[in-house]
Amino acid sequence: MYTNVLSLAVFAGAAMASPCKPSATTSVPAPSSTAVAPGEPFGLMALRSASPIHFAQFGAAQSSIFLNLPAQNATCDDGTKPTEANYATFTVTEDGELYLFRRSATPQQLYVDRSGMGQGKLGYTTGAQPAPRNGERTAFSLDENNNLSFNGAGFIACPNSIDGAWSVWVDAGVSSPGGNSDCLGLNARAVKIADAANSCLYTS
Ligand SMILES: *[C@@H]1O[C@H](CO)[C@@H](O)[C@H](O)[C@H]1NC(C)=O
Ligand SMILES: *[C@@H]1O[C@H](CO)[C@@H](O)[C@H](O)[C@H]1NC(C)=O
Predict the structure, then answer these.
(1) Residue 72 CA: which ligand 1 atom is closest?
(2) Which of 196, 198, 194 is closest to 32 using CA atoms?
(3) Is 28 among the domain residues?
(4) pLDDT > 90: what percent of the chain?
(5) Which end of the chain is more exposed for a tag (fewer CB within 10 A), N or C?
(6) Is 30 inside any structural domain?
């Protein structure tokens, strides 16, 4: 069901990719717009045609980000269906900070480690936990087509991670990060979640 919601939304977004801009008098997108605004919850879908990860959804668990994760085991608030949702919900701020969406508590925050050790490691911190030593927390941005980038870079996914999932990295110029092999580059497309976004604490 969730897969269908996100797939339909991404196709609707593709169909609207022509000059269909909200009014300039407000920063809030018109109701018909599919552009994701700062603070709006969204899912992320991998685009890499003719591959096992085309249209795969981004999941969050164990302080890392994955594609095709069968179970995130997140703890979710108010009626959301934690164990059934197999994708993570994100928000981005105007300042380029990326969070895992949570309505009340301190949301978990994404970081990227582009150091020689990190090789593009994409992870998240929980609560008041500071970013790791070489972790960068800003420079995430969504373009007008909801294409997510980090400081202008796209993403890489590597197979054979936990539960058969693919681990997700930022493209820091290392094509096989973390000692992996058979990794693939991908674009990350944000797909707006109109209502009933899952508000969750993901495992750390
Ligand atoms: C989720 O829990 C199941 C059952 O305990 C476990 O097999 C699986 O590895 C867990 N997934 C993650 C991503 O931690
Ligand atoms: C999406 O963003 C990535 C990283 O900036 C870029 O390489 C790619 O060309 C963009 N894709 C589209 C369709 O704009």
Answers:
(1) 13
(2) 194
(3) no
(4) 72
(5) N
(6) no
Lookup result for tokens 């890489």: 156
> Is 158 part of a structural domain of the chain?
yes
Q: Does residue 49 form part of some domain?
A: yes
Domains contained in the chain, number:
1
Question: The tokens of 165 are what?
Answer: 């999932």
CA-closest residue to ligand 2 atom 4 = 154
Single pTM value for the model: 0.85
Give the span between the Cα atoms of 143 and 139, in whole angstroms: 12
CATH number at residue 134: 2.80.10
Nearest alpha carbon to residue 90 among 41, 19, 141, 131: 41
Task: Confirm if 83 and 71 have CB atoms less than 8 A apart.
Answer: yes
At 53-105, the pLDDT tens digits run 999 999 999 999 999 999 999 988 866 665 567 899 999 999 999 999 998 77
